[in-house]
Amino acid sequence: MAKLGDWLEPHPHGIYVRPADAWIDPSIPQPRALVTHGHADHARGGHGAVWATPETLAIMDTRYGEQAGHPVAYRESVRLGEVEASFVPAGHVLGSAQILLEHRGERIVVSGDYKRRADPTCAPFEPIACDVFITEATFGLPVFRHPETGDEIDKLIARLHANPDRCVLVGAYALGKAQRVIAELRARGHEAPIYIHGALQRLCDLYAEHGVRLGELIPVAGVAKAAMAGHVVMCPPSALNDRWSRRLPDPITAMASGWMRVRQRARQKLVELPLIMSDHADWDELTDTIEEIAPREVWVTHGREDALIHWCEMRQIKARALALIGFEDEDD
């Protein structure tokens, strides 16, 4: 008797879907790739053909040059060999998708990265009934319970108002996190101009082109130091303590990341204002999602597999770890 999902072959560099002759999120170029979202540990250039959402393809075009892309809208199905593949919102970043694979009467969901929190910059996660649920576990430990997003944004605004002669410099990843912080600020009524590092410009422009309201964004280059006092400045994390930041008016260093829950990480990065904001599911969201979907098996990857596998086994859910390559900091 065939094992459930034996037509999928997990490799360190991606998941090979044998009856489709295609790879999911391969980290090395392949002839045929299905891509869940645009972060670099899931989307690479150089593939012969790429199936992804239109937004993910646009992100890949921006990062890697024009792709041999086959756009697949949310909830649209495509036939690849003997497999029916559908793309369903994952709630991670703009265009992020879970990929539902149907073959031989089995339904397998490759969720990619996902979160369950509301996010004004992307479509919300949709649970899909399936036999096998392949889940990330970036924050797969009970200690990781993310606070309310609005409370973290309120901390940022309060610090800004309390220091009108300084700026708050927020480190946030260029794809997804930076745009989410900006959009959440707008949602809390912060309509003042926000200054941005040049490395964020292209992806902020792309988000705006796809209807995400980011308001007035001004490149830092060429702006007088005094003009940025009392304002939020956004940059990639690598620029937080770089020489670039010396052009700013006495910046209060902040960073938006789920890893800011770990105080040692905040200290190591010299972060004065940790903002616990993640684009990944926390422990409760991971376990609640599995309970809601109720799959026959759970395959775990990208993170703290052991704790989540133990949680599944305690509930008589068969679980296993997949040793896929991932870079947990890249997409948080």
UniProtKB/TrEMBL annotation:
NCBIfam families tied to this protein? Xnuc_lig_assoc
Q: Does the keyword Hydrolase apply?
A: yes
Q: Which GO terms describe its molecular function?
A: hydrolase activity; RNA endonuclease activity
**What is the name attached to this protein's record?**
Ribonuclease
Q: Give the main EC class.
A: hydrolase
List UniProt keywords, sorted A-Z: Hydrolase
Report the EC code(s) recorded for this entry: 3.1.-.-
